[in-house]
Give the backbone structure.
Amino acid sequence: QVQLVESGGGLVQAGDSLRLSCAASGRTFSRYVMGWFRQAPGKEREFVAAISRSGSNTGYADSVKGRFTISRDNAKNTVYLQMNSLKPEDTAVYYCAASPGLGVTLKRSEYDYWGQGTQVTVSS
């Protein structure tokens, strides 16, 4: 069992940066692939980024590639999402998720544990 708590969301202007954090409970954090998803009002929850257990492999949605960076600190049981050059279309609730799978995956169904989400609002 893994419990996830996101933080770091807020209201920013277009072009600004934010760093989201997701703290995980338990001693098995390093056994999970970690991902970030987001859900805008009236839209499906979509994949944003994922990182392998060791942190050596990452994957990104095309819409955020080059602007967002996912990282993790297994000693601190924390995964991060650095978001730069934010756009109004990045406005959404951002969720952290954990997958027991072997590799980086963008499939929502492969993530077993989810946080409650943190709101990111980007004004134009």
About this structure: The CA atoms of residues 91 and 121 lie 5 Å apart. The first strand starts at residue 4 and ends at 7. The mean pLDDT is 96.
